[in-house]
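CORE FACILITY INTAKE
Project code: CF-77B
Contact: R.S. (postdoc)
Sample description: multi-component assembly, two entities in total
Requested service: structural model of the whole complex
Turnaround: standard
Below are the sequence entries exactly as provided by the requester. Do not edit them.
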Amino acid sequence: MDNRVATLDATSDASRPSALAAALRHARYVLGENPVTAAAFALFGAFLIAAVAGPWLAPFDPLATDAARALQPPSSTHWFGTDQLGRDIFSRVLVATSLDFGMAFAAVALSFGLGCGLGALAGYYGGWTDRLVSRLSDTIMAFPLFVLAMAIVAALGNSVANIIYATAIINLPFYIRVARAEVNVRRNAGYVEAARLAGNGELRVLACHIFPNILPPVMVQISLNMGWAILNAAGLSFIGLGVRPPQPEWGIMVAEGGSYMISGEWWVSFFPGAVLMLAVFCFNLLGDGLRDLIDPRRRT
Amino acid sequence: MLSLIARRLLAAIPSVLGIVVVTFVLTRALPGDPAAYYAGPAATAEAVEQIRVKLGLDQPLWRQFLDYAGDLARGDLGLSVSTGQPVSEELLRRLPASLEITLLGLLLAGAIALPLGILAATRPNSWIDHACRLVTTLGVSLPIFFTGLLLAYVFYYLLGWAPPPVGRLDSLYSPPPHWTGFYLIDSLIARDGRVFLSAAGQMVLPVITLALFVLAPIARMTRASMLGVLSSDFVRTARASGLTPATVLYRYAFRNAMLPVLTTLGMVFSFLLGSNVVIEKVFAWPGVGSYAVDALIQSDYAPVQGFVLVMALLFVAINLLIDVLYTVIDPRVSIES
């Protein structure tokens, strides 16, 4: 008897690191298969560094104006040129990373928390809860989403926090939908029945047994959503909402340079716009990569 | 068929109701006291109170909601504070300008995306498949305001092919007599070739920008759903029965593959109506989006709410149309219901 327990323990001990190794092998295989995903991961790392250390890495003060150096094309001192007030665009783009990423992260975190909670409850309990949550999600989806975000910012007031709330609200339905569908299939799975039978309360079963299992598909949703959240927040500040002018932010920088674009000073909007595009592109590639890693069947 | 359309119309009522409730809540959620806002900073307490009564803000909430719904039913969206004009008239006047570029953008995107998606699905792993994948991933990453400016820089400033990206017409011409509000159609009715060309020229860049943006979801969905259909049993049976490849592809596969594409079209329209706002700012286009943005910057809320309501109702109407088209393409839907 003792012997058998010992061998069981030994196999489970042995299987744990090998499971980890297998996951790593799988990740390496998928990344090796798809070098683009690996590149996206590297790019994401670079963006994170810029977001955290931007103010220290910037060669110039992003707010310092210098009328003598206004609208200079890119050069070895000013890599991305200077804008109409003589501010260094490279420094501004670098420093803006934290604000743009921060807005998108905060919005996605909010809609992840709220959306998954509501969606999980709807999928688990069904009935009235489900009908209420679905109605809420349908009502949000009945609006063109960017227009709804505009309306929310208009109603709540023109500030960065409200841009985050608006972006979070328009992303809610996507999380509700994923969480609801994934919980619904697992509601009566064997391990859930077992957990219930062992005397766990309903909410505990939902939070501790089902929820961890729906995380992989939700993670994919998050990374696909991040790019869109950044685009949305930048779009709102492009039309003049939220971020106030001297503060560096990609969307507003593109807006400020817009009129110079058609008189030939392309660099004022080009660099913030290009970096914004690169960030969104990076998240979309990451999302596709994560999906390949987690759910190979949906590979396209 | 007719009863089906009627049923769909009924099913849209909760959406419309939801939209009206949400826009009402957004009106009442205005920061601070709307009466104080309308009265201006120098107003006395009595003046504020008068305006409160005039606006009906002293009534209970349900009463205010009924008043609001009643105004809407009469097509009254309130007055714009900055221009003093009724919001509904202004929106109606500007709507054709927005619809013109939106519809043309969608047409152009469909004309490119559908063949691209089909070609990519029929030739997996060929260069066209890779091109399709690149286009779809790049397309969804493009900030639409950035592509618009970039196109304006390349085609107006560098190459000089496009007219200055400002407005619907060259300032040399006056707008054609008003029939539909669509300059392309109105100028044709007026048989004015030069205005037609000028209007078309002004439209090229905004339309291409919009098309680039919505190309990606359509191409992606077409490719994915064609791939799915092409590997299905009925296509294999059709092939085995000796039908020509063209018949199999278009009559059997394409028609079935269109259903999911039609479903994505709803989402695509949501993107299109949203990006219109941004595009109109980039190209100084006098549509409903730029009207709302200008009002928003001046804290003039009635136009913004009117705009949101109109866009949402338009979106519901489009989804209805898509539902009906769905039953035209797929007779099974009407048999089932």
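Facility notes:
- Residues 1-14 of chain A have pLDDT under 50 and may be disordered.
- Residues 89-125 of chain A form the longest helix (37 residues).
Invoice: internal transfer
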